[in-house]
Amino acid sequence: MSGGEQKPERYYVGVDVGTGSVRAALVDQSGVLLAFADQPIKKWEPQFNHHEQSSEDIWAACCVVTKKVVQGIDLNQIRGLGFDATCSLVVLDKQFRPLPVNHEEDSHRNVIMWLDHRAVSQVNRINETKHSVLQYVGGVMSVEMQAPKLLWLKENLRETCWDKAGHFFDLPDFLSWKATGVTARSLCSLVCKWTYSAERGWDDSFWKMIGLEDFVADNYSKIGNQVLPPGASLGNGLTPEAARDLGLLPGIAVAASLIDAHAGGLGVIGADVKGHGLVCEGQPVTSRLAVICGTSSCHMGISKDPIFVPGVWGPYFSAMVPGFWLNEGGQSVTGKLIDHMVEGHAAFPELQVKATARCQSVYAYLNSHLDLIKKAQPVGFLTVDLHVWPDFHGNRSPLADLTLKGMVTGLKLSQDLDDLAILYLATVQAIALGTRFIIEAMEAAGHSISTLFLCGGLSKNPLFVQMHADITGMPVVLSQEVESVLVGAAILGACASGDFASVQVCEDQGLKDSKKYKDK
Ligand SMILES: Nc1ncnc2c1ncn2[C@@H]1O[C@H](COP(=O)(O)OP(=O)(O)O)[C@@H](O)[C@H]1O
Ligand SMILES: O=C(CO)[C@H](O)[C@H](O)COP(=O)(O)O
C-alpha cells in the first residue's frame, strides 16, 4: 500500500487469528502499522490429539482487539477490514448456531483446530482412494485438512452434529461471514484445505468416493458454492450488528480472507530488497521462500507453472499470490515444540525466576545463557552430542507422515539450566534442519530458492533466525515491521476498499515504501 496520490488519512484494519491469540492492527495506506493489540483465545484438549476452540470466543477476542486499535481514530477514515486465521474447521447449524464437535456435546466447543489429529483412520482411507485431487496436496492428504475431519464428524457425531449441521467454514471464512453475513468462501481456504480447484471447481467424484456424497447432493451449499479471490469485497460490507461488535462503522469494506500463513506470505514475499546486497535482488520473486513461523512453520514458495513436490502441499493456483502457483511446506509444531521442551524441563522453574529477575523473556535469557556457556566456540557446536528429531506431532513435510514421533538422543543424568539451554538449542537446530529438508525437496522438484523471508512469533527470536541462516546457508530477511501477518490482513482490507486495484498492487507499492530488511 503506498501513499502515491491517495490522501494520507485512509486506514485499514487487519485481524490475525493465530493458534494461541488474536491480534489486530491499524495500518495506514503506506503500510505502516499504527496500533497493535492482542488477546489470548481459549483452547481445549479433551483427549489426546483432539484440539478444540470456540468460534464465539474467537469472535469476542476479535472485537476486543479491533476496538483497541481504532481508539482515538475518526471511524470515517477506516476504509477496509481484512481477516486471516488458522485453517481450523468451524461447525454451525442451519440457523448459524455453534454445534458441538465433541462427544461431551459441548456446543461452545464447535471448532476442530487445524492441529487436531483425530481423523487418522479417515485420512488413511481417503489416501487409499488415490484420487487425482491428492496430486494437488503433495500426493498425500494430511489429517490436518478438512475432508478427513468432516468424515470423522459424519462417522462419529452423526446425530448431535452431522445431521444438524448447516455450515462448515474454514475459520477465516467464518470470520468474514460473521462480519458481513456473506457465506462466500475464500479461494485460498477452499483450494488449500478442501480440495477445491481454482480451475475446475469441486470434484464430485472425490466426495462420492470418500463417503461424503451429501455435499454433492446439495450442490456444496454447506461447504461453499460461491468462491471469491482473497481481497474481494464481500456483499455490502460490515453489517450493523458486526459494526457494533467491532466498534466500527457499518458498510466498511470487508475482504474475502486468507489463511494466516498465506497472509504472512503475502505480507513479506514481494518485499523490495534493493540496496541490501541480497542475492535475490534482481532475481524473480519465485527465488524467495516465505517462512511463517508461529505455533507451526509454513514454507511458502511460488512458481509460474505448477510444480509437484512429493510431501509438500500444493501446487495451489492463485491461493496466495494471484496468478502464481503455491507450494506450502510445513512443520506442524515448531513454536509449540520449543515451548514444550523448555516448559517441560526440570530446570524451567529456575529459568523463570532468573529471567523474571532480569525482566527478560525465558527465550532472551536462554539465548544469553548460551552465549555465556559457549565460550570461544560457535554456539551451534554446543550440541555436538545432543540431537532432537522434531516430529513430536508428526511430519507434515516432506515425509507427509503425521504418525511420526519425536526423539532426543544424547541425554545425561543432569538436568540443570545448562542442560535446558542446550536442549533448547538442539530443538531450534532440529527445526531449522527440517526447513532445510523441505527446501531440498522443493528444489529437487524444480524450485530454485535463494533467500528466506521469515515472519511470525518465532522470527522475533534471534537464535531461531540465526540457526535458519546457518543451517540453510541462505540469507534470512526480516521485515522492519515485525507483524507482517497483520500487514497481509490489512492488505486484504485495502484491496476490498477499492483504494487499490489488487493485492499485488497493495503489496508492490506499500512494501517498497515502508520496509527495510536485514540480512543475517
Ligand atoms: N519474542 C519472542 N521470542 C521468542 N519466541 C517468541 C517470541 N514471541 C513469540 N515467540 C514464540 O512464537 C510462538 C507463537 O508465535 P505466534 O506467531 O504468536 O503464534 P500463533 O500465530 O500460532 O498464535 C510461540 O511458540 C512463542 O514462544
Ligand atoms: O496449516 C497452516 C497454514 O496452512 C498453519 O499451520 C495453521 O493455520 C496454523 O498456523 P499458526 O502456526 O500461525 O497458528
Automatic annotation (TrEMBL):
GO terms for biological process: pentose metabolic process. Residues 289-496 form the Carbohydrate kinase FGGY C-terminal domain. SUPFAM superfamilies: Actin-like ATPase domain. It catalyses: D-ribulose + ATP = D-ribulose 5-phosphate + ADP + H(+). Transmembrane segments: none annotated. InterPro entries: ATPase_NBD, Carb_kinase_FGGY, FGGY_C, FGGY_N, FGGY_RbtK-like. Keywords: Kinase, Transferase. Coiled coil: none annotated. Residues 11-267 form the Carbohydrate kinase FGGY N-terminal domain. GO terms for cellular component: cytoplasm. The keyword Transferase applies. It holds the Pfam family FGGY_N. Postulated to function in a metabolite repair mechanism by preventing toxic accumulation of free D-ribulose formed by non-specific phosphatase activities. Alternatively, may play a role in regulating D-ribulose 5-phosphate recycling in the pentose phosphate pathway. Can phosphorylate ribitol with low efficiency. Belongs to the FGGY kinase family. This is FGGY carbohydrate kinase domain-containing protein. It comes from Cercocebus atys (Sooty mangabey).
